[in-house]
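Mods, move this if it's the wrong board.
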Amino acid sequence: MKRSIYLLANLASLATAGPQCVDVKISLPCIDEACTELDEFVCGDVIVEGSTTQPVVIKGLKNVNGSFILRSSNTTALHVPHLETVGLNLYLSFKNPMLQFFNFSKLIAVGNDVSIGGPELESYSLPLLRAIEGSLVIFAPKLLGESSMDGKIGLTALDRIGGRLQVQVPNSTSLQFSFPKLQSTGSFILEPPPALEPPALSGSPLEIELNFPQLLSVGGDFTVKASERAVVTSLKVDKLTRAEGGIRLLSPTSPEGIGLAQKKQLSFPKLNSASFVVTSNYQTDFPVLLSVLSSFDVRNAVFDISLPLLRDIGSNLNLQDLRGVLGEPVSVLMPKLETVGSTVFGYDASSIIIKNSTLAALNMSMLTVVSSGIRVEGVKGLTNVNFPQLVLAFFLDVLISRNLFLEFIFINFDWCLAFPGLHF
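Not the wrong board. Structure tokens:
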């Protein structure tokens, strides 16, 4: 890794050296092999353009100060066996609908973005790539889908992505997505198939396994976007401790996808802080989560919601449509939660909202401050809601609820302005 950083540093210094940096263009088809034999170092960009159906082998090239760009319209295979570093971007296949394979067997580091994609791409080789300073974007239906030999994708040596890791899934049946050595990324986005793909057929959902066994931190959001039928059924993030952005797991929209999502529990066993948490239909587990800077929003949970160590939520706590698969009650257990919203004097609209749920238990026994108020609406099953430590809340609304016994113990009631109105 030290070698790759050194090379990139040298490339960066040369990039400011002035007008002597020129691009190298390879126009296909070549009249002879000399057109693909380059110097070891290119100060500008390397651009492969033109048209050929023959495999392209670029020899000699070790370092590119600028970008490496493939623009050839129908090249099926690209080999760059000696390239070690790219100072800026590595763009492959988006401009070439015919590319099936590429090989950069000695590439160690890329100074900015990497884009891998195309309708015919089936395999690639980047066995030594360890660092991408920008983003990595992957869209390759055949590479990700069932036409590949095992439905797997991975960059086995990659340990750092400075920007986002974005993957667009195909309409397929199963996918295992693995980065065995990745320790950090700016963000992660799993997207549904694009609109240009044929609509998904009815039947079994697309089952996705996400495997990040060494991931320690995410600089932005960890996002699974809503999809018609793509469902994350397995998640391995056993070392993830921090999400500087938030956790967003959005539900599939088909009945089959929703049913499958509700049967699986996705665990973040070491995550202790996040900016926000938003989940819909996915059943999640955060056993050591201590703090959420913004909102915590859970919808359509069929398992108990247990956050045994959570102490504070910076904005709203929103729990809606919580009940078992057969309508049986579930429990909400947050025994150490103390504050919801800001504890600084002044108006804050943060609230606890619990709606349209069937609950067996609601445990927030250490709750002391809700900067706005508490709203319970359409909740069945509870016979006792107890906030024995609550000292500050500006309203309490209990709507469409029966046989609900409320017990509150307030301290400093005269100044805390607790409950100007109590509504049933």
